[in-house]
Specification:
The complex is a heterodimer of chains A (about 140) and B (about 250).
Chain A lengths: L5 E7 L2 E6 L9 H14 L3 E6 L12 H10 L1 E2 L4 H9 L15 E5 L7 E6 L5 E5 L4
Parallel strand pairs in A: 2-3, 4-7
Antiparallel strand pairs in A: 1-2, 5-6, 6-7
Chain B lengths: L3 H22 L8 H29 L5 H6 L10 H4 L5 H22 L5 H29 L3 H14 L11 H8 L10 H14 L22 H15 L6
The chains are: A alpha/beta (about 140), B mainly alpha (about 250).
């Protein structure tokens, strides 16, 4: 819910219909997310049906403040606004806050990171390498 | 099949992404640097994701028991409709980047237009994909400039790649019978309409990269009708090996 991946959840004749949407088309986590939702609902005593939808296309704007906090706690810097995002990914600006020491003395290591949704950064103060969640509008 | 033209049209779009994705995937663990290796395979993953959406839709249109996997894995060489450009090998990093750049510029313009289609599923896939493709285009454009305007060696290799791959660009704007049928129904993109725009974009970046724009007017085509270069067969044997050896295997 906090990542904006779950779009709707409604009851139709005793069955929970849940619609989920991928962050990126090739996101390999979608099957796991779908299975986890199904399992959680089953444990709570509900039958469910999971549907993958593509429209409207997912955007980082749908990540809630709680979701952003959870990302930061995990060590992934949450997306900046579109303009700042462009500045850090293309123009070498130092605006991303290090998830370890909170310094903004961070630099882009790679435009592409460990998954499609992230870029790789490093902090020049504490030297910690970390992921940055790219802004997607 | 009732909607044969739509089915073939979708395969034409999807096969480009499948074959290019497979080519980029070959670089897993073999990229020139860790960052470019990850970038190429990330782009590959985006393309495969898009391919799944297209093939799932095509399977639904086929209306029989075929699945997205059957469409991806179990066709013969002549039943793939990708353009020749995307099947060209990773001769060296310059070829990988130039191939990517020449396709990305096309792909971006194509998806921009596909968003105006009368087919809601294709519109949804286009809207999703274009966000990813704009990032691919940035990557290949940046690298083309770095390589072209780089060292004497990188410039020479990149110019060679541009000269060699240029012959496959015209085919991007060739329309098949299925394409034309779908254009008249307002579903397909009339690619001929953005051809001038394409070459304008490409030439501007080549100029900025201090590379020469090829003057050759000799162009190859055939992929969109299933007639491929010698490279596709080898690529498919790699792609299809597991599924042919262990039919119906799953991860």
């Amino acid at each position: 819910m906090d990542m904006g991946v779950v779009r709707t959840a409604i009851f139709v004749k005793e069955v929970v219909h849940v619609q989920i949407t991928p962050t990126y088309s090739g996101c390999p986590a979608m099957d796991v997310i779908g299975d986890d939702i199904k399992m959680a609902l089953k444990n709570a005593g509900y039958h469910s049906k999971i549907e993958l939808i593509l429209a409207p296309a997912w955007t980082t704007d749908w990540i809630t403040p709680k979701g952003r906090k959870a990302l930061e706690n995990y060590g992934i810097a949450a997306p900046l606004n579109a303009e700042a995002d462009k500045d850090v990914l293309l123009n070498g600006k130092r605006l991303v806050t290090c998830t370890n020491c909170k310094s903004q003395n961070t630099r882009l290591v790679s435009q592409f990171g460990s998954t499609a949704c992230k870029a790789q950064f490093q902090c020049d103060d504490c030297q910690e390498p970390f992921d940055y969640f790219k802004c997607l509008k | 099949m009732k909607n044969k033209n739509l089915y073939n049209y979708i395969l034409g779009i999807a096969d480009n992404s499948l074959i290019l994705g497979q080519r980029l995937g070959e670089l897993t663990g073999h990229g020139p640097s860790l960052e470019t290796d990850i970038a190429c395979t990330n782009i590959s993953l985006d393309l495969f994701g898009q391919v799944r959406s297209y093939y799932q839709y095509a399977a639904k249109i086929a209306g029989d028991d075929r699945t997205e996997d059957d469409i991806a894995m179990l066709r013969k060489e002549r039943e793939y409709f990708n353009v020749l450009l995307v099947e060209q090998p990773n001769t060296n990093f310059a070829y990988t980047i130039v191939r990517q750049f020449l396709f990305d510029v096309y792909h971006y313009l194509f998806l921009t237009e596909l968003q105006k289609s009368h087919d809601v599923t294709l519109v949804a896939i286009a809207k999703k994909s274009i966000k990813e493709v704009s990032y691919h285009k940035r990557f290949s454009t940046d690298w083309l400039k770095r390589l072209g305007d780089g060292t004497t060696e990188s410039k020479q290799k990149t110019q060679q790649a541009v000269n060699d791959l240029w012959t496959y660009t015209e085919e991007l704007f060739y329309t098949t019978q299925a394409d034309n049928a779908m254009i008249s129904e307002g579903i397909a993109v009339d690619v001929t309409k953005f051809k001038a725009n394409y070459y304008q974009n490409v030439n501007a970046v080549l100029t900025e990269a201090t590379l020469d724009i090829p003057e050759s007017k000799f162009f190859q085509k055939g992929g969109k009708q299933g007639i491929h270069t010698e490279h596709l067969g080898y690529l498919l044997s790699d792609l299809q090996y597991m599924q042919r050896t262990y039919p119906n295997m799953e991860w």
